[in-house]
Amino acid sequence: MVAETATPTVSTPEAPSLLRQPRAVWAVAFACVIAFMGIGLVDPILPAISRSLDATPTQTSLLFTSYLVVTGLAMLVTSWVSSRLGAKRTLLAGLALIVVFAAAAGSGDTVEAVIGFRAGWGLGNAFFISTALATIVGAASGGSAAAIVLYEAALGLGIATGPLMGGLLGGVSWRGPFFGTAVLMAVGFLTIAVLLRGDTVPKGDPVPLSAPFAALRVPGLLVLSLIALFYNIGFFALLAYTPFPLGLDETGLGLVFFGWGLGLAVTSVFGAPLLTRRLPRTGVLWATLLLLAADLVAAGALIGSRPGLITCVIVGGLLLGVLNTVLTECVMEASDLPRSVASSAYSAVRFLGGAVAPPAASAIAVAVSPGAPLYAAAGSVAVAALIALAGRRVLRRVDDGPEPAEVEAEAITRGA
Question: Where do transmembrane segments lie in this chain (predicted)?
Fold first, then answer.
């Protein structure tokens, strides 16, 4: 009689689930949505702030300038701070600053006060976005792939819905979007404080304070930073100036810039990776810069046509999403520096470039004509395209191939 041999049962591991994540991951993802809402949140309420606080468009546009200047300067030290504090403390510090300064901005009685409080908001946002991706990947279950998809979804949702939230709450009062952000970020702070363990993401080696400054001596990184400097002038001229000539109420502006944000989110998350898997990054970069310059020229020519200008704003969002992600991917490949150091140096330069654009656009409109700021922005973007073409030899190494998913996700983050 032959004894039967039991056949061992081999269990097949379950595929990682996007939705089956620890509560800490959902807490950080929720905070990411709110943080990235801040990019377009104030757009629909710029004219309302101008009317309510008796401010000129140039003064009101400084809400972007103060936010971007402080964000850019803070980017130079975020890697130094987070490598010492750790991810959880850095996240909580950023969220706490956003809560305090968003609420203060909503309480401001002068445009100067709101401008100053927006600067504090920018400091908080810089600390938060510098560590959000690493935190989600560290806390996620089922590997990094599902975590990155969740993170990119949160980022895209925030970029798209920020202007919509700004328009809807701004229809009640221009203060509404600021108070709404403060409340939601306070909820995010509490959930992260309770649910996220402090050891989720290791601190890693301390980063020297001088590292981002030294990084700008690398030729490839310097070229990309100059491209971003001129490109961001076009980006923020489109974003911060067009609400005034559009002449819509808060809800109307919210819907227009919801379309802008949705286009930017879709091409950031899906369009840019698709293009760079098939074409050299440098080719995608200069070609899309030229398309954006053409879109800005069209916006200037159509400044008196509301449907025409709305179309240009939304097309601009599609192009901006591609450029933001591709530029940051190039930064990560342009040198052998740690990604956090390279992107901090680059982000500082590009944000400082963007800070110049909003008040300059408003001043040019008063001095020359309503369409002139968009023509000037087109010229700046064309300069960025020429730098990209002239610097192709220096940037040769960025065309080596597609990035891993985690690097792609960080590029989308830094680009936004």
Answer: 24-42, 62-83, 90-107, 119-141, 148-172, 178-197, 218-241, 253-276, 283-302, 308-327, 348-368, 374-391
Query: What gap in Å lies between CA 371 and CA 300, rounded to an integer?
Result: 4
89-148: per-residue pLDDT in tens?
888 999 999 999 999 999 999 999 999 999 999 999 888 887 887 777 777 665 556 666
User: Nearest to residue 215, comparing CAs of 84, 340, 90, 327?
Assistant: 340
Q: Are 375 and 298 in contact (CB under 8 A)?
A: no
Domain assignment present for residue 13? The answer is no
For CA atoms 155, 340, 213, 331, the dihedral sign is negative
Do residues 221 and 333 touch, judged by C-beta distance below 8 A?
no
The count of domains in the chain is 1
pLDDT attached to residue 415: 47
The backbone region for 86, taken as left when phi is positive above 0, alpha when psi lies in -120 to 50, beta otherwise, is left
Q: What is the pTM of this model?
A: 0.83
What six digits make up the tokens of 215? 């990084």
Query: Could you tell me which of 371, 125, 352 has the C-alpha nearest to residue 244?
Result: 371
Token code pair at residue 68: 């971007």
Domain membership of residue 33 (yes or no) is yes
Q: Comparing C-alpha atoms, which of 131, 146, 177 is closest to residue 28?
A: 131
DSSP of 74-90, one letter per residue?
HHHHHHHHHHHH-HHHH
CATH number at residue 57: 1.20.1250.20
The answer to whether 15 and 139 are in contact (CB under 8 A) is no
Domain residue limits at 165: 23-415
Tokens of 286: 């200069």
Does a structural domain hold residue 17?
Answer: no
pLDDT tier for residue 253 given thresholds of 50, 70 and 90: very high
Q: Which region among 29-38, 115-124, 139-148, 169-178 has the lowest average model confidence (pLDDT)?
A: 139-148
Closest alpha carbon to 192 in 106, 271, 86: 86
Q: For residue 249, give the nearest of 51, 35, 19, 31 by alpha carbon.
A: 51
Is residue 275 one of the residues assigned to a domain?
yes
Helix (H, G, I), strand (E, B) or coil at 173: coil
Given a contact cutoff of 8 angstroms between Cβ atoms, the answer to whether 27 and 192 are in contact is yes
Q: By the 8 A CB rule, do 259 and 161 touch? A: no
Average pLDDT value for residue range 234-258: 93
Token representation of residue 379:
């010229």
The phi and psi torsions of 173 (rounded to 5 degrees) equal: -160, 145
